[in-house]
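Dear colleague,

Thank you for sharing your sequence with our group. We've completed the structure prediction you requested, and as agreed, I am returning the results in plain text so they can be pasted directly into your records. Please verify that the sequence below matches your submission; if there's any discrepancy, let me know and we will rerun it promptly.
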Amino acid sequence: MEIVHDSGELDDYLTFTAVVSPDHPALVDRYVEGREVEVDAIADGSEVLVAGVMEHVERAGVHSGDSIAVNPPRNLSRAVIDRVVDHTTRMALALGVRGLINVQFVVAGDEAYVIEANPRSSRTVPFLSKVTGLPLVGLATRVALGRDLRSLGYRGGLWPAPPYVAVKAPVFSWSKLTTVDTSLGPEMKSTGEVMGLDRDFAGALYRALVAAGVRVPAGGTILATVADRDKAAALPLLGRFADLGFQLMATAGTAGALAAAKIRATRVSKIGEAGPNLLEEIQAGRVDLVINTLTKGKRPERDGFRIRRAAVEYGLPCLTSLDTAAALAEVLEAGLPGRPFAPRALQDYLNEKRVDDGFAG
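Please find the predicted structure tokens below.
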């Protein structure tokens, strides 16, 4: 699977990546750029209990297993949340589901489009079980064996959101998967996941990133190589990093755009050009974070692939989504890197939930 933006990218994909034949056709869908939203629910044939609504940090197009997910959602209106719950409920009942169902949506404006509905457990069930305190697997098993939600002390609807923020972050094994491109896209590449809990999004995300093995820099130099189509969105974001005291290093196109926006950056040569190039800067230890959005494909001979692999080899965080970079900026603006953690048990968070939430019997 691949997201292409024009006929040239489509030609490149079909020529170098896909194996197309009469028996293996290429299927083309319209891509909707919006927020991806995911829910897990239990249906008993009459009612549907939606355990939670998770909003992905990365926009649609990044596999749900590779996305950072947040519960409760941060940017969804009450109307959109209600629509997501309603769509989930009606689909689960129409499909005759007894047990768990996972539904993924893309939200564009006020519309919630269904990407897929899977009448089974998903990788987010353990996450939501811990966040909400709901014994989802046990409940779903009893429902599948003939019980109904009411007889188990529950009813349909959206389970109340917790008074804290939970973040699910993917874990990658880039150092072991030496030929895999680290860019994120529709095909899943993560090998695990972790959870972070805190009072706010920045704190929960920081805990999750640290647990996932990401070395979050408190300062230093950011190497930015941004595709032309991403420059308008990248400039204010890179300006935020500059305001935090980071030095910016960029290739000609990105450096020129930054200069036009009056954001200071050091220009660095591309691979193969005269002068110290960006690969040499990484190897010399003069880079602390890489922000690299895709330009023309992911083939190993391309500069972008070599940059991303070099970041892995030298232990640098490499972000290929501006959405992830913007979330990281929130962590840095909160001044969290370097601060000691105050460990807290999951049970302590769950005990803060409302005692009488109107659901449990």
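Summary note from our side: The CA atoms of residues 227 and 295 lie 5 Å apart.

Kind regards,
the structure core
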